[in-house]
């Protein structure tokens, strides 16, 4: 019976995954390995024929007539009219008048007049390129290569060809007056319109859902405005019949596509691409405007904190790319070295600044951020994934044995981290200040404030002979337990994560791996992102002081929410995506693995750093941190006991997390702040 139970348990936890190629199979397998970063996005280009029609439309060019799909008067199209349409139309009218004023540019004046009506409301209209008799030979060289449109995720930023019709050789067969009309157009009219469409393109791209408008502007500046005026035909969609000698070059039926959150450029999500210029702005303002003449410290701190999000994404994708293309040893080293680089960079820079200024507040902020990461990853991330996944799936199951291993490590790590704190409570001397006699009797009751346990009494004997050796012992034992956990889950008991990869060697489904980032490219991006992360963390700690001193919000609350959870936003997004695909095991492992790394990897490194660079950081936490962490771990183990969950259990985890946030919000600031 015991053997049958073991066989049944093995069948239950076995997971079958499908991968397009060997690199993707390696990445999927790494997702289930303890200590490896969980990454949802693909590290290789997916086969185009396997993509859905919705995704294919995102990468297609605006030269396809898709047929009428209802009324063109939609909220998105009206938004285009209010944001861009009216002033683009006015600008084209002004450029048209300027072209008519030059006389020789009258053909382009008529073109701009027609385009003014088109860009006021381009929906339901198409722009065609008409063939002029006798121009085939003159334009043959220009047509070659200009019509090749990039298709797929590796195409240009906004897709579509970049023609070269503006070159003089393209006008070899044109009349002299036609060549003369292009001079005022290229000198006066075209640059103004390029600037306008460039502005529209940037705004639309940053808004993501308006990327069709960005494609419209790019297609206009690189194709339509470089054609001879006689070859541009504007017609209504219902009246259009494409003649054999012409082709559609621009057709847009809607300004907003909500699915563009899936859009990627060379494998990088569009939101990470949009936030990347923010890093450059942050570094320039932070190091050039050192005296805060242009911006204030709170703005610089906010920019630095927001810049951490895209850098965390690039670090995560680089780690996943290197691990998927390398052997197990290289992947393990990269994950162990750079897996916690985001948090450690901020913590170490904060401790250095606090040590230089002699301010104990920075050490308390680091402790609060560590506790906030632990509590958030144990309660908030799994709870949010359960709630969102529960709306699509009534009940979700996960690998109970793998979750049990992580839960055991969490119990061990939390007990080890807070052991010096409990030791100090037992043997420390309670000292209180601001005591007042409430009974007016020398032997009566006293009301005291600012009580704390003194560890430095008797010339620091308690701290240096007892507490500090205990801290060093715990900091040695916790990484040792982490290594034992890695050996247990990856070597001796790897069957707990029984992953079977299918699809790589199935006839008809084999695809060669076209990686987005090669190993060397991923390594360079990883190092550059780490360097930028260090600079942003330095700026954040440099400009956090005004926020801590002037804000009415408790420093506890600020640290356990903003400082702790903002760097984990990419992990939260990955967890939600896994939960929506009914893969709650990875959603839970994301939060639990981060919590384990906080206790067993990050805190021992901070203690080791304190040995070589003395700071105010000691492994003695406040009572609030101890109680919040203990409650979180106990509740998490109770919820995960049966291996099944639903949105109600996720709501319970989130409600407890919000209750703890309320406690931190109303708690007084830590001592030293």
Automatic annotation (TrEMBL):
GO molecular function, one term: calcium:proton antiporter activity
Coiled coil: none
UniProt cross-references to InterPro entries, sorted A to Z: CaH_exchang, NaCa_Exmemb, NCX_ion-bd_dom_sf, YccF
A GO-annotated cellular component: endomembrane system
Main location: membrane
Protein name from the UniProt record: VNX1 protein
Pfam family name, one: YccF
Locations listed in the record: Endomembrane system
Record GO biological process: intracellular calcium ion homeostasis
Keyword terms of this UniProt record: Antiport, Calcium, Calcium transport, Ion transport, Membrane, Phosphoprotein, Transmembrane, Transmembrane helix, Transport
Domain Inner membrane component stretches: 75-125
Transmembrane segments: 78-101, 188-211, 268-289, 301-322, 328-348, 369-391, 403-423, 470-490, 520-540, 586-612, 624-641, 647-667
Sodium/calcium exchanger membrane region domain segment(s): 300-418, 522-664
Top-rank taxon, per record: Eukaryota
Originating organism: Centropus bengalensis
Membrane-protein topology: Multi-pass membrane protein
First and last residue of the signal peptide: none
Gene transcribed to yield this protein: Vnx1
């Amino acid at each position: 019976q015991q053997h049958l139970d073991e066989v049944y348990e093995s069948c239950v936890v076995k997971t079958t995954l499908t991968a397009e190629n060997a690199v993707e199979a390696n990445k999927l397998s790494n997702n289930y390995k303890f200590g490896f970063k969980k990454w949802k996005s693909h590290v290789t280009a997916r086969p185009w024929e396997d993509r859905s029609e919705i995704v294919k439309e995102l990468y297609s060019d605006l030269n396809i007539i898709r047929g009428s799909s209802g009324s063109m008067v939609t909220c998105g199209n009206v938004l285009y009219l209010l944001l861009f349409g009216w002033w683009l139309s006015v600008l084209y009218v002004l450029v048209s008048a300027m072209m008519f004023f030059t006389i020789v540019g009258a053909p382009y004046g008529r073109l701009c007049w027609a385009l003014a009506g088109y860009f006021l409301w381009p929906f339901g209209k198409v722009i065609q390129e008409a063939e002029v008799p006798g121009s085939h030979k003159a334009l043959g060289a220009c047509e070659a290569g200009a019509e090749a449109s990039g298709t797929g995720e590796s195409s240009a930023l906004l897709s579509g060809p970049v023609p070269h019709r503006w070159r003089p050789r393209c006008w070899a067969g044109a009349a002299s007056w036609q060549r003369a009309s292009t001079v005022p157009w290229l000198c006066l009219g075209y640059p103004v319109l390029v600037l306008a469409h460039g502005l529209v393109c940037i705004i639309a791209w940053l808004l993501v859902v308006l990327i069709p408008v960005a494609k419209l502007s790019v297609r206009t500046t690189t194709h339509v405005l470089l054609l001879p005026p006689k070859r541009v035909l504007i017609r209504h969609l219902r009246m259009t019949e494409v003649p054999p000698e012409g082709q559609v070059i621009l057709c847009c039926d809607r300004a907003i596509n909500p699915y563009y959150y899936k859009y990627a450029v060379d494998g990088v999500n569009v939101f990470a691409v949009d936030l990347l210029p923010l890093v450059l702005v942050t570094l320039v303002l932070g190091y050039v405007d050192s005296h805060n003449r242009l911006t204030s410290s709170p703005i610089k701190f906010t920019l630095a904190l927001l810049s951490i999000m895209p850098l965390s994404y690039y670090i995560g994708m680089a780690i996943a790319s290197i691990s998927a293309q390398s052997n197990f040893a290289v992947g393990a080293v990269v994950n162990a070295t750079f897996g916690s680089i985001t948090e450690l960079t901020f913590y170490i820079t904060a401790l250095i600044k606090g040590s230089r200024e002699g301010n104990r507040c920075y050490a308390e902020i680091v402790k609060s951020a560590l506790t906030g990461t632990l509590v958030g990853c144990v309660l908030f991330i799994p709870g949010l994934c359960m709630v969102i996944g529960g709306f699509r799936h009534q009940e979700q199951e996960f690998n109970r044995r793998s979750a049990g291993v992580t839960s055991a490590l969490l119990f061990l790590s939390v007990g080890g981290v807070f052991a010096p704190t409990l030791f100090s409570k037992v043997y420390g001397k309670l000292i209180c200040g601001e005591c007042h006699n409430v009974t007016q009797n020398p032997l009566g009751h006293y009301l005291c404030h600012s009580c704390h346990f003194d560890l430095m009494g008797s010339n620091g004997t308690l701290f240096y002979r007892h507490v500090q050796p205990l801290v060093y012992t715990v900091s040695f034992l916790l990484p040792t337990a982490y290594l034992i956990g890695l050996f247990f889950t990856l070597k001796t008991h790897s069957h707990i994560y029984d992953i079977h990869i299918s699809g790589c060697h199935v006839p008809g489904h084999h695809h060669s791996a076209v990686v987005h980032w090669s190993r060397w490219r991923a390594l360079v991006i990883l190092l550059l992102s780490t360097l930028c992360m260090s600079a942003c963390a330095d700026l954040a700690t440099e400009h956090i002081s005004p926020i801590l001193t002037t804000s009415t919000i408790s420093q506890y609350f600020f640290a356990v929410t903003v400082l702790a959870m903002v760097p984990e936003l990419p992990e939260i997004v990955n967890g939600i995506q896994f939960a929506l695909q009914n893969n709650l095991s990875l959603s839970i492992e994301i939060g639990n693995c981060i919590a384990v790394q906080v206790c067993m990897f990050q805190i021992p490194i901070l203690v080791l750093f304190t040995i070589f660079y003395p700071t105010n950081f000691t492994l003695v936490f406040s009572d609030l941190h101890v109680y919040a962490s203990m409650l979180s771990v106990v509740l998490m183990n109770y919820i995960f006991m049966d291996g099944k969950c639903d949105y109600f259990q996720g709501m319970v985890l989130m409600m407890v997390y919000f209750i703890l946030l309320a406690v931190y919000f109303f708690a007084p600031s830590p001592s030293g702040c």
